[in-house]
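Format notes (please read before filing issues)

Several people have asked whether sequences and structure tokens are stored in separate files. They are not. Every record keeps both together, in the order shown below: the sequence lines, then the token lines. Line labels are part of the format and must not be stripped during preprocessing.
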Amino acid sequence: MAQILRGKFGFSVKTSRSLRPLVLNVSRINFSTLNGGNGGSRHPHRRYLLQHNVGFVPMYVTPRRTYAMIVARVLRGALKLRYLVLGGAIGGGMTLNKKYEEWRDGLPDMKWLDDILPDNEQWHKFSKNLQAVGGAVRDSIEIDPRLKKISEEKLAEWRAWFDNRLDNAIEAAETTENPTIEGPFQKVSDMITDMYGVTKEELKAKHLVEAKGVSAQEEAHRKHQSMQQQIEELQAEMMSVQLKYQKELEKLERENKNLRQQYLILKSNRKTGTKKIKKSLIDMYSEVLDELSGYDTNYTMADHLPRVVVVGDQSSGKTSVLESIAQARIFPRGSGEMMTRAPVKVTLSEGPYHVAKFNDSEREYDLTKESELAELRREVELRMRHSVRGGKTVSTDTISMTVKGPGLQRMVLVDLPGIISTVTVDMASDTKDSIHQMTRHYMSNPNAIILCIQDGSVDAERSNVTDLVTQCDPLGKRTIFVLTKVDLAEELAEPDRIRKILAGKLFPMKAIGYFAVVTGRGRKDDSIETIRDYEERFFKTSKLFHRSGTVMPHQVSTRNLSLAVADRFWRMVRETIEQQADAFKVTRFNLETEWKNNFPRLRESGRDELFDKAKGEILDEVVNLSQISSKKWEEVILTTLWDKLSSYVFENVYLPAAQSGSQNSFNTMVDIKLRQWADQALPARAVESGYEALQKEFLELIEQAKKSPDHDDIFDNLKAAVVDEAIRRYSWEDKATDMLRVIQLNTLEDRVVTDKHEWDAAVKFFESSVKEKLQATENTMAEMFGPSSWQQWTQWKYSTDEQQKRRNVKGELDKIIVSDAKHPPTLSYDELTTVRKNLQRAGLEVDTEYIRETWYPVYRRHFLKQALLRAYDGRKAYYLYVTQNRDRGDCAINVNDIILFWRIQQVMKVTTNALRQQVINREARRLDKEIKAVLDEYSEDEDKKQQLLTGKRVSLAEELLRVRKIQERLEEFINALNKEK
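Then the structure lines:
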């Protein structure tokens, strides 16, 4: 049936097996335009046949002959159609429909075939139409069944016989049409048109071409070639899609299996019972180990809890074995480079999702995504490199992580750096000894399970790890030997040698179990699934590890190794956990007794609790800043501000202006200097004053808290460090300087005192300021000239030679001041010469500079005394100042000093008020923010806590709390473990 059918009655199609039931039964029929067009014929029957063009070749005949030929052509096609229909349509229609439904149901998603194949309803209609056509043909014309066996070459002989039978049929066709045949042919035409995209217009075009003399068989052959090409393309596409969906089906089956396993785990989590305890048991145990990792190693039981220690030579496959057990490539890899630089504790547990996380982080890495796996490996490498300090190559700091996933065995493994025999130039000189010491430390735990990894592809005599394992576990009661890379070993080594290794007869070390594993083909990009598939195929085909060999099946594969290690791990845990808990009970009792003897009235508070208490006290003092009254703030700020400004006011403004000798020049000079001062230095000085006032008040609150009966001096170092750091970071708001500058400039523009109260305050301010400077000058002169005569007689004080010399110079200078009370601030050349000569006559030889140095404090005291007299006179001069200033714009007495200090006093008042508002409204909160930031940083810094919170009380409390926490967690774990039994 797969042969190519040709004939002038239609075109042929070469079909595939998948579409053969459909195409083969219609390939002989040339269903052209059965529904339209008159073909240029005037006779109705001839027009009908020309419209449908069923294998019709135009001929020049009479109308009656034409009708006969039309009917003959129709019957000839019908007979050929009967051959096809009886062979495939009647029996194959229903079969095709059924096969199609089964085939379609078997595919995962065959919606893409909707555009190619008809739906089920169309198949039913097509089948019924073919059955109707077959019945009609069978009723009208009988044909010998042996016709089915006639070959294609014999068909030509039957054509003549068909022509003889057509005359009667033509006569019948002239009188009536056969609707039984016409209907099914119409439906079949529509079906074929829909399936192959042959439109009525295309069939009309074909009819016109044939009418012009183009060969019908050439056109049919062209159509046949085109359709054959389309079917071949369809076959290729179907095959590729079938392969694609086959792979998708396999993938979906695997995912479905994993999802079902996850669903069962999630379902069990919602229930209470044994499975929930099993799932959380390893996490509880891992938390105990984390607590022990930082515990004081002076107590010998610190490292006696079981764990699986993975040891081996460098590049022996330790990390690969651990990754196979964890079912994820979680560790960084390198070519010949030491990648494991610190111990990595991996806690494996069963879970619904394959994820990993570090114990000190909340981020989870999805191990099913390669991007997150790469990020996890980078994070592990970064943590390892950060743990190495001081030029070392390896570190003892443990990196702890948890891996969860479906089917993982519950256990705790510690991956250690590989043992090396030679130190390279890029390593620290003590790297080899450090690794040996670290490995011995972990293996010396009498309850540790040693997973000894040996590279099977190298000579056994080159192994360094076996000697260490033998020293730590000479009887092999807790050692499991693992031979890696056995696929390479099988090619390189003798089979008997490998069998001896796995039988424990080659190495002097002993072990409770021997295993052979394959850790991959040496490709970094291979996934764990690929490695496991490779391992499974290897052990199935290897003669050495076949069931008929001496190596037992349970000794091979990473899966069997994982089961054996987990079983041994939990057996060791059950055997030793009670003993470890009892040891911690004894330790806890001893520490509690020591605490009661030393600190009977205090509660055991660790560093964290003490830090929180100190933090609360510091923040309480910050809150107390808001309780300080506005009056107190103004007093503190004003005092601090004048301390900052007094020196500049006297030395740079008042004295140069007052010693100018003219009131007009005094005012001019004062205005210039005040404006320059307010535009540059004054705002900055004011801000400094506010900052120092705030700091002073806060420190005073801290000091007052120390006088409280509830004060605990254990916090003093911490409080001082926090306050100092916060004040160092704290700074006044930047825009405050610009705001103060505007206020100060506007205030200094006012020169008229309009209030008696302000005048008296200015006089008092001027008087007190002059007295302060005068007292400072007196102190300077006392140091320079020595004690007075009264002090020498009453206090038994004596002057030095230098002081006596200065006193003699002062005597000459006093004569000048007495002779001229309004003397300018500098000595003339003649006056200097006179003083020097007078001293020479008295037997003293001094230079001019020495005289000037002595003159400065003498004149300063004289000038300040005169200023103080003006201040006394100014107490009663306000009404005179107001009257004369209002009438003439001037005053009979010199009150410029008082007005200057009034202006200074006014600018200090507005500055103090502005600073007080800023302190209360903004700066106290900003300081509070800095203190909180420092406290938050210190709370995360364990080194800072240990540095600032010290003493026996703290260390003893820390140890007691640690032991108590470990012991409580051990009891919790033991209860859960007993429930699991």
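For reference, the curators noted about this record: The first strand starts at residue 308 and ends at 312. DSSP finds 33 helices and nine strands in the chain.
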